[in-house]
Design a protein that fits this description.
Elements (H helix, E strand, L loop, with lengths): L6 H4 L3 H6 L3 H7 L1 E4 L15 E8 L3 E4 L2 E9 L1 E6 L2 E6 L2 E5 L4 E6 L5 E9 L3 H6 L10 E3 L4 H15 L7 H15 L4 H20 L7 H7 L4 H12 L4 H19 L4 H7 L5 H12 L3 H8 L15
Antiparallel strand pairs: 1-2, 2-9, 3-8, 4-7, 4-9, 5-6, 5-8, 7-10
Helix pairs in contact: 5-6, 7-9, 10-13
């Protein structure tokens, strides 16, 4: 069962404790704030009903909602089936759900994704449509860029949701924080450009250093970024792919292409990719591809040719 269907109702009473005996530990992992009962002193913005955060959502949802929902997928990926069309979901992205429409969505089988969801009452649908932020018929799945402005809004909203304090202004505060997050997900062109440039620099650095160990502090220093900015920028553009996973993927792509498309020896290919030690290159290639470089070349080269090898490969 998805937490959103019962956490808002039972969050503060003993029933919650019966389901989750380790209450404090569970609270730190996932959290929910239900704001419908709060009277708004300044009813200007659409009034949020429930806010929730799920760091590792594993279940698929097959449901027809009565509410208008924004599901911010912060890491991971999966699918969204709507009206017979299957949409791929890759973080960061926003999924929209609206009243009366059957929908099936969730992470890949055996996987999970990180999600922050905003639930607005169905009565807000017209108001949300008029803001041009809630366009389910046009953009049921909308990718976005995790800009510094978005990260700042996300941090404030997470802190608010995790707080156990209850204040009479919580309704207005929640409405404002949610709207800031939604607005920040529509990055301005200059914000997107700045983020794209930084992400490109990170990728280029990793692609030029395929043979070296990755040290986060050195990477940030070489790129003249703080460690937190580096993580935020990479996380926003690459989702849950790690630096090492990205670099290994590029290593395999370049190695395989050179093995099949060139007549260079394995030693020459290793050197071209920055590896002084052919044995280290060969071990890495076999670990990632499941076969030796020579075997890969023999299998995929069209037509099969005999290539000179400058040094033997360790198996």
């Amino acid at each position: 069962m998805d937490e959103r269907f019962f956490l808002p109702v039972f969050f503060e009473n003993s029933f919650f404790c019966a389901i989750f005996p380790h209450k404090e530990q569970q609270f730190m992992k996932s959290s929910t704030k239900h704001l419908s009962p709060f009277v708004r002193q300044f009813p200007v913005l659409p009034q949020i009903e429930t806010i929730g955060y799920l760091p590792e959502k594993k279940d698929c949802i097959n449901f027809s909602f009565k509410t208008c929902n924004f599901s911010f997928i912060l890491s991971g990926g999966g699918t969204y089936l709507l009206r017979g069309k299957l949409y791929p979901v890759t973080a960061p992205a926003v999924l929209l759900q609206w009243p009366g429409e059957p929908m099936l969505y969730g992470p890949r089988e055996g996987g999970s994704w990180e999600e922050l969801y905003l639930i607005y009452p169905g009565s807000c649908q017209t108001a949300l449509l008029n803001t041009n932020t809630f366009l389910p018929d046009t953009f049921p799945v909308r990718p976005f860029v995790r800009t510094p402005r978005f990260e700042s809004a996300l941090a404030r909203l997470k802190t608010f949701v995790a707080s156990r304090r209850i204040q009479e202004t919580d309704g207005d505060t929640g409405d404002l924080l949610c709207w800031e997050l939604i607005a920040a997900s529509f990055a301005r062109p200059e914000e997107r450009a700045a983020e794209d440039v930084r992400l490109k620099r990170i990728r280029e650095y990793l692609e030029k250093n395929l043979s070296k160990d990755i040290h986060l502090e050195k990477l940030a220093s070489d790129l003249r970024m703080s460690v937190s900015s580096l993580r935020r920028c990479w996380h926003g553009g690459a989702g849950n792919t790690t630096f090492r996973e990205y670099r290994d993927e590029i290593f395999l792509q370049k190695s395989c292409r050179l093995l099949v498309e060139s007549r260079d020896s394995v030693k020459e290919i290793a050197s071209a990719l920055g590896f002084d030690d052919i044995y280290y290159f060969s071990r890495k290639f076999r670990h990632l591809s499941g076969m030796t470089a020579s075997a890969y070349r023999r299998k995929y080269c069209i037509p099969p040719l005999v290539f000179p090898e400058s040094a033997p490969e360790r198996r």
